[in-house]
Design a protein that fits this description.
Largest sheet: 4 strands, antiparallel
Number of strands: 10
Order of helices and strands: EEEEEEEEEE
Strand order of the largest sheet: 3-4-5-6
Distance between the termini: 27 Å
Helix content: under 10%
Length: 121
């Protein structure tokens, strides 16, 4: 994973993802301090967005992570998964908060928070 500072047009650094299989999604906190990656290895990883990309936390989920979204206001990460579910995790620890089921008859490919962090879609 390489991260890039758009204002100066310079690379901040690169780091190995740590995932055993390809990364399917990546999300950043609004302040740019953390990066969340999800993979078809059924893990979600929270990293420091500094040049070394030091990993803080790892969450193992029941299926592939197709999309991740970060909401700093609510301190949550949402993970859309292949098993028809969306998982909510604590932004600081990646501890499970909730599993949202129902209504999906196939893999969930997209998930997002509104700007205020009050709604998850």
């Amino acid at each position: 994973v390489t991260h890039f500072r758009t204002e100066e047009r310079t690379a901040l650094g690169s780091f190995e993802s740590g995932h055993a299989k390809p990364i399917l999604c990546l999300a950043c906190t609004a302040d740019g301090s953390h990066i969340v990656t999800g993979s078809c290895d059924k893990t979600l990883r929270l990293r420091n967005a500094s040049a070394d990309g030091a990993e803080f936390h790892l969450a193992r989920l029941p299926d592939d992570v197709n999309r991740a979204a970060v909401c700093e206001a609510a301190r949550l990460v949402a993970a859309a998964c292949e098993n028809h579910s969306v998982y909510l995790l604590d932004l600081g620890t990646l501890a499970a908060v909730a599993q949202l089921q129902g209504g999906h008859t196939a893999a969930v490919w997209f998930v997002g928070f509104d700007r205020a962090g009050r709604r998850l879609v």
